[in-house]
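Researcher: Good morning. I'm working through a list of sequences from a screen, and I'd like to move beyond sequence-only analysis. For each chain I'm collecting a predicted structure so we can compare shapes side by side. This is the next one on the list. No need for commentary yet; just the structure.
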Amino acid sequence: MKIKVFISYIFASPEHHYFTRKKFDIGSAPTYELSSVELEPGQGIKEDRFEFSKYPITLISQEVMHMVCQELELPYEPSLFRRNIVISGINLNQLIGKEFSIEGISFRGIEHCAPCTWMNAVMKKGAYKLMSGRGGLRVEVLKKGILKTGPNTLITESIDKLLDPLAAQKKPRIP
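Model: Good morning. Structure tokens for this chain:
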């Protein structure tokens, strides 16, 4: 199935803002917005804090981000979500455990990227609950290529019917 998607943002940050820090001690490392990024198999985005980790890249739905900000009456600031790639047009939970490609770059959806309670501290109380079941998708790169912001085509053999990008799953798991 070919699915028209849009990549709005690509982010990288060299250090953690929340993870590994004392409770509510928010870091100040910069978050860099990129217009394109070269991706290599088994690695994350160059110079990102997860470049060589078990979960190298995270995607998040732009539809979910807009909904969270609207529900919490916050300005839309995509970098606060601390995910690498902001994409619209697909329910990311449908890609858990599946292989797919975007513009020739092959990925495997590893698992749901659950939100952490830090979201309540960084954004506003209620962010964690709103993101539960739709916090994003951890992926690994299988075939290299250059990913760019803008309109893209996602190709997968694994999806018969598209779900609403805002639909949450109680406990998203690999099928």
